[in-house]
Design a protein that fits this description.
Radius of gyration: 30 Å
Strand order of the largest sheet: 2-1-3-4-5-6
Low-confidence stretches: 1-10
Strand content: 15-25%
Shape: globular
Number of strands: 29
Helix content: 25-40%
Bound molecules: S-adenosyl-L-homocysteine
């Protein structure tokens, strides 16, 4: 049977999907429409053959087959776990997406993705994920870490999983996920059962270590190079290798070889980089001339317009994006070449994560991924309680109470400035009346910031009420703790006159009872008494309560059961109640459609 959909994508990135039953084929179609550029479907009578073809030709495999059938079919062709594509099997009832092979090499993630599309549950059986800790063989891989020697991964992993004390040593803090709690920088060397190191220094031979040791090399070094025209790759490469070796630096930590633009086509430099697997970065002479270096040369300045090539290029390339960088090896010379090495300081990472309104299936998968990625999670106690079971073991939790927003924002930023991966969490969306803006007010350009959108309360509530946000709307917080009431009042008048549907956040608390009635009164000056009003208490939480009523009823005592767990939505002049649902029609669409019909 021929396979379909050939040659539509680069094969290594393709997901081969095997479907032999009716049900499997329709599920395969769903994967195809979810990921049109990635899926290549294999359909046929002989499942085993299709599976083996997919395994040989694709970067990952999803099989709508029993695990046993898949294992038997693949057994003869299984190779190395680092090179084989991950395999996920989905049962005929589409209930489970099982990561069968290559769990840590994309299989677990693929199982979760497939489960997401099909509404199935991912089944993960790898040990470290079962114990909810970061897997060692891909630890830091997304940051560009390499493992110096893979042999000790198994004994060190076993020590971590069994909770024995593991010593952590690093020369700089990188934004890494947590390891199991047994791993600590405080573990004294004499009581450590294993050692984990993150360093750009070259390792001693593994026999020299007392205990099993895994060394990760982070991409923290940049080699700067200059050469005379025609200098040989062997000479340049030899100079670099010696410079690194004599300084005790690991070549695996070199991320880039940098030089000046006039050397962009210098054969010897390009080949020396290629042989070592490094990318080349060329920088304009004028840019290099601005870099302060310890060993400038007037001769070089006269020749190419910058007093330094090797030192300046290394420092400049290492310091891109505002990173701090310093020279690790000053300029060294051979007959026709110069080399220097710079070390960069990693930047911490601050993730601003909105968890959504409450129900876990309304939390974005990306938000969960950021929670897993962070080694420090900062937030209000009640939100932390909501996600505590999701946090990886070893995650440091910094909880604080209501009213400590500024302190919370400063803590999160300060932790990221120390280099850690930090998640600052909040309910709904982190940017809506929440922690993202105070945090970014304090954050400088010395950290990386990522935001994960969350479903905000107004949107969650709107779906319980009907479709109140179908036309223009305004959010107004009725909390006058930080905003003077006069400003809130001005916005209320403007929203009323502008005929917006209005969503009130923080509508009422025990100490702030008069603001909501007053706000409703102002809107009532511009809206008829039968204007729909809806409110939802604890939207998308266990004790959710939704009410659709009218402005008049709200003004006559209906606002009593609104509290700080509630959002209130007041309609515009176009809003209506239809079959008990609050609807704001998007009228102009139909108007313009009507105009085109004769
Ligand atoms: N960042 C949050 C808002 C924080 S302000 C978000 O995007 O949703 C706090 C106010 O949000 C509460 O006083 C309440 O008005 C509203 N709110 C938050 N979650 C809610 C929920 N699940 N149901 C109803 N209102 C909610």
């Amino acid at each position: 049977m021929p396979s379909t959909g050939k040659a539509q994508m680069s094969e290594s990135g393709a997901i081969g999907v095997i479907a032999v039953t009716e049900r499997g084929r329709s599920a395969a179609d769903r994967l195809q429409s979810a990921w049109p550029d990635r899926v290549r479907t294999f359909t046929g009578e002989r499942a085993g053959e299709e599976l083996r073809s997919a395994f040989a030709e694709c970067g990952a495999v999803v099989a709508f087959l029993a695990v046993g059938a898949a294992v038997r079919a693949l057994a003869p062709v299984l190779g190395d776990k680092h090179a084989d594509p991950p395999v996920v099997c989905v049962d005929e009832a589409l209930q489970h997406a099982v990561a069968v092979l290559g769990g840590h090499h994309g299989g677990n993630a693929l199982a979760a993705e497939v489960a997401g599309v099909l509404g199935a549950a991912p089944v993960i059986t790898t040990a470290s994920d079962a114990a909810s800790a970061a897997p060692l063989d891909s630890y830091g891989a997304d940051l560009g870490f390499t493992v110096a020697d893979t042999a000790p991964l198994a004994p060190v992993g076993a020590a971590l999983l069994s909770g024995r004390p593991v010593r952590l040593e690093y020369d700089q803090v990188w934004p890494l996920p947590p390891l199991a709690p047994g791993a600590s920088a405080q573990t004294p060397p004499e009581s450590a059962a294993a050692l984990l190191r993150v360093t750009d220094c070259a390792v001693q031979r593994s026999g020299d270590q007392q205990v099993p040791t895994v060394t990760y090399h982070p991409p923290s070094l940049v080699v700067g190079v200059g050469s005379a025209r025609g200098a040989a790759a062997e000479e340049i490469g030899g100079l670099i290798d010696t410079a690194l070796a004599e300084a005790g630096l690991a070549p695996q930590s070199v991320r880039t070889l940098a030089t000046v633009d006039v050397k962009a086509d210098e054969e010897g430099i390009l080949r020396a980089a290629e042989e070592r697997g490094w990318q080349v970065r060329v920088l304009p002479a004028a840019e290099l001339a601005e870099v302060e270096v310890p060993n400038p040369s007037d001769v070089v300045r006269a020749e190419i317009g910058t007093p330094s090539v090797a030192e300046a290029a290394a420092l400049r390339a290492a310091g891109q994006d505002g990173r701090r960088a310093e020279l690790a090896v000053a300029k060294r010379k051979s007959a026709n070449a110069t080399a220097a090495v710079a070390r960069l300081h990693p930047r911490g990472r601050l993730a601003l994560v909105g968890l959504g309104p409450g129900a876990r299936d309304l939390t974005a998968p990306r938000a969960l991924a950021e929670l897993h990625r962070a080694s420090v999670v900062v937030g209000l106690d009640q939100y932390l309680d909501q996600v505590r079971d999701l946090l990886r073991r070893g995650t440091r939790v910094v909880a604080s109470g209501l009213g400590q927003e500024e302190e919370r924002a400063r803590t999160a930023v300060a932790e990221a400035q120390q280099g850690a991966a930090v998640a600052l969490i909040g309910s709904g969306d982190a940017g809506v009346y929440a922690m993202a803006s105070p945090a970014l007010d304090f954050a400088g350009d010395d950290i990386d910031v990522v935001g994960v959108p969350g479903i905000t309360a107004a949107v969650a509530a709107a779906h319980r009420l009907g479709a109140p946000l179908g036309h223009d709307h305004a959010y107004i917080s009725l909390s006058n703790l930080h905003t003077p009431w006069e400003a809130i009042e001005r916005r209320l008048h403007a929203a009323a006159e502008g005929d917006f549907t209005v969503c009130f956040y923080n509508p009422r608390s025990r100490r702030r009872a008069w603001q909501l009635p007053e706000a409703l009164r102002i809107l009532g000056e511009h809206r008829p008494p039968d204007t729909p009003v809806g409110y939802v208490r604890n939207a998308a939480r266990d004790d959710e309560r939704a009410v659709v009523t009218t402005l008049e009823a709200m003004l006559n005592g209906g606002a009593e059961d609104v509290d700080m767990y509630t959002v209130v939505l007041v309609g515009s002049s176009a809003s209506r109640t239809v079959a008990g649902r609050f609807v704001t029609p998007r009228g102009y669409t139909w108007n313009s459609a009507a105009e085109t019909v004769p």
